[in-house]
Specification:
heterotrimer, A mainly alpha (623), B mainly alpha (204), C mainly alpha (95), A: 623 residues, two-stranded antiparallel sheet, 64% helix, B: mainly alpha, Four Helix Bundle (Hemerythrin (Met), subunit A)
């Protein structure tokens, strides 16, 4: 069995070294790592934005930030966390593990995969460049018209519009890639109902994205035309309607929150069985619930618009649909609890974060249910109660889940374990800090504190809990610092992990850590759910686990030399070129009024060159 | 268990020993894309329907629309779907020359449609219907403009395939592919079927 | 190449194209001639739907291809149509 101490599999295999190797890589594992590291960097940036916000709100009438600066900070914080952190981190995990979990060697379209990453990076840089070019977008991450269609002396919302469009293209390309992969590239014997739950959630998310992004894309085009061409889509005085924007945005925006959390739920569904040493309770129900959440998720978008005057029929309909969606979510929770119940539980760090996920997500889900009650929501809307709700599900939920994934899969990426002591410290600090920050916001919201307001007056009764929240925020920051230190320390100095440090159930633990570029020496033939587990263990007459003698020999074929007849797709620079062209064109569109046409032309020509080069280039050169 | 040579295609069906069927993979991706385009154009059609009577101070639909002209354009685009499917059929039967002729016919019909659109739009602008004059104008031009842009991309792809076929580089398993471009082209046609009915015929 | 077993002939395609042309002519007639006003909306939507379905099923071969492709396209349609009908219904200006 190939044992790796350093990481030769991540090294080049065609002789290309360094930066060029990363720019031209089409290996899903490398692309996954790129997404992950980039997301982590943006997480720190978004976190600092949050800390500045919390400093400004630590007490009444503070003037650390002006209103204008504050508006940019909370807009960018939301934008960053949603689009530049959580979506990419889900993409990181999906990229790295979807093919491996399915027994495949790569995704369906490796170059398209690379393209999605570079476009994501370029779009993120485009959006952030706005800070240095006069000012960042300041209309909230939801960009409601007519605030967002107002022109100011400095271009701002156009960065937001173009950035989101580019990110949307990257996501749609990824989604098509993952759908094609899941439907056509599973290993022999792996039926749909033998796919790991994480793979299922990735598939549902891909569907959510391809059917929700086009709606906001049209909304964004319309906003861009209103701002730059004088069209009248959202111009009430001329017969347009700003509410159209809200619909188009939330038709995307609501499925988007499931895009953010479902992969984390998938990760938790992998971790719980491993650390309870029991199969997932009710696998078909967990899968079916995930799909239902996705489907019903398309029917609740106007619950973000309950105070917009849609009328009682529409409101009642959306309120009921919102309550209904709590049901499949609850099914998942009970199945997870059923998985842990009666198991031989090991409370290692991934398990702690997974249990934390369940607890925090339930709290967030409960406040969500209160939002479904329309009279209650009318009071809660645009207050800190909403901020509390979505941070519980997105931070306490999604982020905890993704962090669990990092602790779980770090050994597979690097061949080393993260430090368990530091990990547990990270968990407790983050749990305490998180609750200290966001629990008080329920109270603040019900006591009337509005969102998106840069300061509050004295004597309103909000001082104490705001201060508490600020202390909590810095506690979170400290815990993240520990996390980053852990990652850096353990990459080279962590305990060697081996292929299967957790005694796992799924295919990724059957290959070396880190995996060779071709993943599997021999494509596995899958005989059932958790196939790898059943190659390792049988059961004796009393149902106790029995390690199978032949397990190792069957799980990983014995080979000493690198298999020579496996051709992986060759690296290519066309994905980078194409995405670069699109980003340049994007800058041109932001500055359309002042000569941006030139950049649009140059960018599109570059992208076209990239596109044609890409389609004419063979996938693998003849050797 | 056999070692699977190439990475891009490890399809579930293994009947063809050694034959790597990349086609279902790419066709799946194309249908995914077309599914998302349904939502894309659906949003624009919904916007148009919302604003179909919002004429502000600009011209009304019945004042500017020229149904006979647009009917002719629609017929042209419809027939281009026929030539497209004939091109694909010829390619499947290894008749590269006939395939090229039908591809050129499709591109030509598409270009004719585009010319008709450009003429129509310039007429409308001359008569006072612009993007800025009314929500009706904004939504009309955005919907038909995006459709036209899709047609233009299609014509470029068709032309590229004609050029590639001349140098023998039109394959069924890589690069630009007739069937996939065909699916895109037919989709652009069915969007126009909806637009012609909903935007033109139902507003006058 | 594909798993489809039905292979239409060029003649079949010409026939479908002819039918589509006839349907288009009918649409224009219903749209322009006052006599048809009572059935205008239903007639036009109906004919458009038939043309749409014909091109998708026959020219795009969806009727004879893998169910997966049909599913992918139908999900797109089945999401788009109800969602946008609901959007339009929440506005009051449907005249």
């Amino acid at each position: 069995m190939a044992m790796t101490t350093e990481a030769p599999a991540i090294d080049t295999y065609t002789g290309r070294r360094g930066i060029w190797a990363w720019i031209t890589t089409v290996d899903h594992k490398r692309i996954g790592l790129l997404y992950g590291v980039t997301a982590l960097v943006f997480f720190v940036v978004g976190g600092m934005e949050a800390l500045l916000i919390r400093l400004q709100l630590a007490g009444p009438n503070l003037e650390l930030l002006s209103a204008a600066q504050y508006n940019q900070l909370f807009t960018m914080h939301g934008l960053t966390m949603v689009f530049l952190v959580i979506m990419p981190i889900a993409a990181a995990f999906t990229n790295y593990f979807l093919p491996i979990l399915l027994g495949a060697r790569d995704v369906a379209f490796p170059r398209l995969n690379a393209f999605s990453y570079w476009l994501f990076l370029g779009a993120g840089l485009l959006i952030y460049s706005s800070f240095f070019l006069g000012g960042a977008p300041d209309g909230a991450w939801v960009g409601y018209a007519p605030l967002s269609t107002q022109l100011t002396e400095v271009v701002r919302m156009d960065f937001w519009i173009i950035g989101l469009q580019l990110l949307g293209i990257a996501s749609i390309a990824s989604s098509a890639n993952f759908i094609a992969t899941a439907f056509t590239m599973r290993a022999p014997g792996m039926t749909m109902m033998r796919m790991p739950v994480f793979a299922w959630m990735a598939l549902v998310v891909a569907f959510l994205l391809i059917f929700s992004l086009p709606a906001v894309s049209i909304g964004l085009f319309q906003m861009f035309l209103d701002r730059n061409l004088g069209s009248l889509f959202y111009e009430a005085q001329a017969g347009g309607d700003p509410l159209l924007w809200q619909h188009l945005f939330w038709i995307f925006g609501h499925p988007e929150v499931y895009v953010l959390v479902l992969p984390a739920m998938g990760i938790v569904s992998e971790i719980l069985p491993t650390f309870s040493r029991k199969p997932l309770f009710g696998y078909p129900f967990v899968v079916f619930s995930g799909a239902s959440i996705g489907l019903v998720g398309f029917g609740v978008w106007s619950h973000h618009m309950f105070t917009s005057g849609m009328g009682p029929i529409a409101e009642a309909g959306f309120g009921i649909a919102t309550m209904i969606i709590a049901v499949p979510t609850g099914v998942k929770i009970f199945n997870w609890m059923g998985t842990i119940w009666g198991g031989r539980v090991r409370l290692r760090t991934p398990m702690l974060f997974s249990i934390g996920f369940i607890a925090m997500f339930v709290i967030g889900g409960l406040s969500g249910v209160t939002h479904a009650i329309i009279p209650a929501d009318t009071q809660q809307h645009d207050t800190y109660y909403v901020v509390a709700h979505f941070h519980y599900v997105l931070f306490g939920g999604a982020v905890f889940g993704y962090v669990a994934g990092v602790y779980y899969w770090f050994p597979k990426w690097t061949g080393r374990m993260l430090d368990e002591g530091l990990g547990k410290l990270h968990f407790w600090l983050m749990l305490i800090g998180f609750n200290l920050t966001f629990a008080p916001m329920h109270i603040l919201g019900l006591n009337g504190m509005p969102r998106r307001t840069y300061r509050y007056g004295e004597g309103l009764g909000w001082d104490f809990w705001n201060l508490a929240a600020t202390v909590g925020a810095f506690t979170i920051a400290l815990s993240i610092l520990l996390f980053i230190i852990n990652i850096i320390k353990s990459r080279r100095g962590g305990e060697p992990a081996g292929d299967d440090p957790w005694d796992g159930r799924t295919l990724e633990w059957s290959i070396p850590s880190p995996p060779p570029v071709h993943n599997f020496d021999e494509v596995p033939v899958v005989r059932g759910l958790d196939d790898f587990w059943y190659r390792k263990y049988g059961e004796d007459d009393e149902g106790r686990l029995l390690a199978l003698e032949t397990a190792e020999a069957e799980a990983v074929p014995q080979r000493d030399e690198e298999p020579e007849d496996i051709h992986m797709p060759d690296p290519s620079y066309y994905p980078f070129v194409t995405s670069f062209g699109l980003v340049v064109a994007g800058f041109g569109l932001v500055y359309l009024g002042v000569g941006g046409w030139i950049a649009v032309g140059v960018g599109m020509m570059t992208a076209l060159w990239g596109f044609f080069g890409w389609s004419l280039e063979p996938v693998t050169r003849e050797h | 268990m056999t070692t699977t040579p190439a990475a891009e295609n490890v399809p579930v069906e293994h009947h063809d020993a050694g034959h790597h069927d990349i086609h279902p993979i790419r066709k799946t991706a194309m249908w995914v894309f077309l599914g998302s385009e349904c939502v894309f154009f659906g949003a624009m059609i919904a916007t148009f329907l919302l604003y179909r009577s919002e004429f502000a101070d600009g011209p009304h639909a019945e004042e500017v629309f020229n149904i006979p002209f647009t009917s002719a354009s629609s017929f042209v685009l419809l027939m281009s779907s026929l030539t497209m499917v004939l091109a694909h059929h010829a390619f499947e039967h290894k008749d590269l020359r006939r395939a090229r002729i039908w591809l050129m016919a499709t591109a030509l019909l598409g270009a004719t449609f585009l010319a008709g659109q450009i003429f129509e739009f310039t007429e409308f602008v001359r008569e006072g219907l612009t993007v800025r004059v009314s929500p009706f104008g904004s939504s009309f031009f955005m919907l038909t403009g995006f459709h036209g842009a899709h047609v233009m991309i299609g014509v470029v792809l068709l032309a590229a395939m004609v050029v590639l076929s001349l140098s023998g580089r039109l394959y069924s398993d890589r690069g630009l592919n007739i069937e996939l471009v065909g699916l895109y082209w037919h989709f652009v046609d069915i969007v126009w079927i909806i637009i012609f009915t909903v935007v033109y015929l139902l507003q006058v | 190449m594909t798993a489809s077993t039905y292979h239409p002939t060029p003649r079949f395609y010409w026939l479908v194209a002819g039918a589509l042309a006839v349907a288009t002519a009918a649409e224009v007639a219903i749209g322009s001639i006052e006599f048809f006003d009572p059935i205008k909306v239903v007639g036009l939507f109906g004919l458009a739907a038939v043309k749409f379905a014909a091109v998708v099923a026959l020219f795009m071969h969806l009727k004879f291809d893998k169910p997966l492709y049909r599913g992918l396209f139908l999900v797109g349609l089945l999401v788009a149509i109800p969602v946008f009908i609901v959007v339009l219904l929440t506005f009051e200006r449907l005249t």
